[in-house]
Structure formats: C-alpha cells, structure tokens
Design a protein that fits this description.
Strands 1-2 form a two-stranded antiparallel sheet. It is mainly alpha-helical and 106 residues long. Helix 1 runs antiparallel to helix 2, helix 2 packs antiparallel against helix 3 and helix 3 runs antiparallel to helix 4. It has a domain of 70 residues. The chain is built from 4 helices and 2 strands.
Length: 106
C-alpha cells in the first residue's frame, strides 16, 4: 500500500463508526483501481491506444483499443471514489481534507 493510502487508512480509523466501514470500502476500491490503472498504463505504453480489427473479408482498420476504453472508464470511477472518500474524511477535519487533496493533486 502506498504511503499516502496508509495515511488515509489511519485517518479512517479516527472516523465515527457510521462512516468508518464505508470509508474503508471506498479505500479498498481505490487501492484496487489504482493497481489496475498502473497495469493498464503499462500495457497502453507498450501496445498503444489503437488496435487492428477485422470484420469479415472487407472490413478492417484501426479502432480504439479495448484496454484504452477500460482505462478511461476506470479513471472516471477512480476519481469518483476518491471524491467520495475525500468528502467523508473532510467532514471530520479540514486538515484531513488538505492532506488528501495534496495526494490527489500529485
């Protein structure tokens, strides 16, 4: 787990019980998505954002890669999860929000 996520996990432990489980679930999702995004980034750097396709004898060409489409969707979902996590942590203290915002801006 990245250091920034370890700090966020520490902050989650200080939340009220009602928010703690939701925040931990969001953090788990964020960690998983970040790991998958890194894999997709590596593949996109190696293979590129396009792939060849062939539909029958006469239809062929280039299209956006499947990995590229998954990457774009996952980035959007990751951003949403991080915003939700920021909102939960921000309710507790302004300092937590600032630390998380610093992490998000990297």
């Amino acid at each position: 787990m990245r250091t920034s996520f370890a700090k966020v996990k520490t902050e989650i432990k200080n939340l009220p019980d009602a928010s703690k489980q939701l925040a931990m679930n969001l953090l788990d999702k964020a960690i998983f998505m970040e790991q998958e995004l890194l894999k997709l980034q590596k593949n996109l750097k190696e293979k590129g954002w396009t792939e060849e396709y062939k539909n029958g004898a006469n239809q062929f060409g280039l299209k956006k890669s499947s990995e590229g489409e998954v990457y774009i969707a996952l980035v959007k979902n990751y951003s949403t999860v991080m915003k939700q996590l920021q909102d939960i942590l921000g309710k507790r203290a302004g300092e937590t929000t600032d630390e998380l915002m610093t992490f998000l801006k990297r």
